[in-house]
Amino acid sequence: MTDAEKYLFDVHGYLVIENALSPEEVEAANAAVDHHADEISIRPNDLANGSTTLRGKTGRGDLGGMLTWDKPHCDVFRQMIAHPKLTPYLEELLGPGFRLEGLSMITMDEGAEGFWFHEGGEPFDRSRGFLYRNGRMYCGMTNFAVQLTDVGPEDGGFACLPGSHKANFPCPDDIRLYHTYKDRIVQIPAKAGDAVLFVECLMHGGLPWVAEHQRRSVIIRYNSGVMGESLMGDYTPPPFYDELTDAQKAVISAPQYRREDKGSKLYRTQ
Ligand SMILES: O=C(O)CCC(=O)C(=O)O
């Protein structure tokens, strides 16, 4: 992560990583989604949560299970979970031993509703926080929205209030519902293959999708190795675990403590 990227992520709570996927990876992911298009489940048009400015004609689409799809369709999604263009950001923000907490996809067709603005720095959430301490950032849940289709500046889709990951006061509901101070909310344009990195405690949501082409964003969630939000009961590796590379296995792990370099040789003798 460059100094400029650290500065921008600290100030805004998000960053656009251009060309995270190659054109071949984007093509493979879109072909896989096309093949599984009948599995996209259209939500019941309720994410606007009563907002008159976020409502749409239809619900957005959700798709999951990509890591378990038959080959070759699963391959590019398995590459994404430990992608060399993306893991350096996770190492910086989550530290060694970061864990995958989920991979799913959002689709939006023209007229699909937006998503009310949720999360934000207040109240502080142990699993979804953001801290700066002793020269580095410490994040809780941290996500990539990997774009499989272009997102133009007026298209809609992922939007946020930059800097809200550091909020100290509760956000008023009329701002969350996009009824007031709309000019403070930023919709993030990106090209197919770009990844929007954002910390979950950034207040974020979605604007209604107005473009003619389908929005396709792969949402990949991680947390530090000690957090286990998406884990219930005993940890069981997924059935496809043995098919993964070592780097991919490393992110599919039970919560664990990995001691970071604490600077003193005394720690290394224990
Ligand atoms: O990208 C969007 O439409 C909203 C995503 C979102 O709210 C989330 O990932 O929590």
Task: Describe it.
It is a single chain. The chain is an alpha+beta fold. It has a single domain (3-268), classed as q2cbj1_9rhob like domain (Jelly Rolls, Sandwich). Helices cover 19% and strands 23% of the residues. It has a seven-stranded antiparallel sheet with strand order 1-11-8-13-4-3-2. Strand 6 (130-133) and strand 7 form a beta hairpin. The longest helix has 13 residues, at 23-35. The chain is globular, with a radius of gyration of 19 Å. The mean pLDDT is 95. Residues 106, 115, 145, 157-158, 204-206, 217, 219 line the site of 2-oxoglutaric acid (AKG).
The total domain count is: 1
Query: What is the SS-derived class?
Result: alpha+beta
The tally of helices reads: 7
**Radius of gyration (Å):** 19 Å
Q: What topology emerges from the helices and strands here?
A:
Layout: H1 3-12, E1 14-17, H2 23-35, E2 41-42, E3 61-63, H3 75-81, H4 87-94, E4 99-108, E5 115-118, E6 130-133, E7 136-139, E8 142-147, E9 157-160, H5 173-176, E10 186-187, E11 195-199, E12 204-207, E13 215-223, H6 246-251, H7 265-268
Antiparallel strand pairs: 1-11, 2-3, 3-4, 4-13, 5-12, 6-7, 8-11, 8-13, 9-10, 9-12
Bound molecules: 2-oxoglutaric acid.
